[in-house]
């Protein structure tokens, strides 16, 4: 929830930034090149004397308040003129790229007989300019009437055209004849084309060339790329988070599977323990009950025979009395493991109580159960028990038949066992008449 809120906040901030980037584009990208008289720009005042004229020029002052000059335009040359040039580039050949600039602003006061003034933005390009010939630098020109006093004069870069006389004098081919601002070396203020003879006074306070840092298309492309980056970053983050979640889930699932398997095993162990006699490891009465129920069901539904063998250790009291109760315990456990080793997996061996055991033989006829009993009897009798030596046991065998019940079955086996005891022990007796 907190992460989602954080995401929404981030999105909101990004949308606001995008809106600012779009609507505040002009303000954000604006770059202004200022020609301030207080700054250290090289400049020159010129007249038409080189062209055979007689115009007088005079620099009146150069102070932080502005460049001030006057000229007295006189007849003499075919085109009398005077002008003031400010060098804005590093040199006369290395200028400033102002291709993306839009406006020129002039703070200029003029007094004189002429109201027309020319402004040149001079561009040096080796395709047509040479360092040796100052006039070969392109004359991007705009001409305006300085007849109405105003705060500043403003022209668009689009308003500039290349002076015709310059194109003609330098034989400029058409493909190079357009205005160009990619290497501006100087700005000039010159008397207009009207050639009004007489006094002209200029005071240039400030010039601003207004442009923008980046191209508009690049700016929008940058915004789009930034968003693409944000979206890609977000997707990468989501993929990483989801991968982590899937990995964690898998680990948790694996842990759960392991815990379940452990619990399963444990519950089976506990189940077995609940049905097992702790001393001998044989099943207890609960175990017998289940095996008998199972056998009874098989007898009734599948007509499979069910036999049981009752076993009682002979003279066990004597063993206890002679060797102690704990040795007696060891003998009982020994007999149990001996028997368990030699019975089928379908047979269930359980402790009936004290030194008495019962073997439930499912799907077993009485003759075969008697055979098993005999085998076990011999096995016990032939075994050498630690400390005690020889131990014997008596066996009574019975099977379900006809109308007999479970009670009859146990009673039959019990009676057979007592017969075996009566007849001298270490014997197997089979119940009859069941
Ligand atoms: N050590 C030990 N003795 C037990 C245990 N349960 C019963 N007994 C003893 O087993 C003896 C059984 O004695 P009896 O019932 O007289 O029978 P027996 O001595 O085996 O004589 P017969 O069965 O007639 O051959 C008793 O002394 C019981 O105390 C047991 O868990 N451990």
UniProtKB/TrEMBL annotation:
Please give the start and end residues of each transmembrane region.
219-240
**Sequence ranges assigned to domain GGDEF in this UniProt record:** 304-433
Query: E.C. number, please?
Result: 2.7.7.65
Catalysis: reaction(s): 2 GTP = 3',3'-c-di-GMP + 2 diphosphate
Q: What is this protein called?
A: diguanylate cyclase
> Which PANTHER family would you find in this protein's record?
DIGUANYLATE CYCLASE DGCM-RELATED, REGULATORY COMPONENTS OF SENSORY TRANSDUCTION SYSTEM
Q: Which CDD domains match?
A: GGDEF
Which molecular-function annotations from GO does this UniProt entry contain? Answer: diguanylate cyclase activity
* Keywords of this entry: Membrane, Nucleotidyltransferase, Transferase, Transmembrane, Transmembrane helix
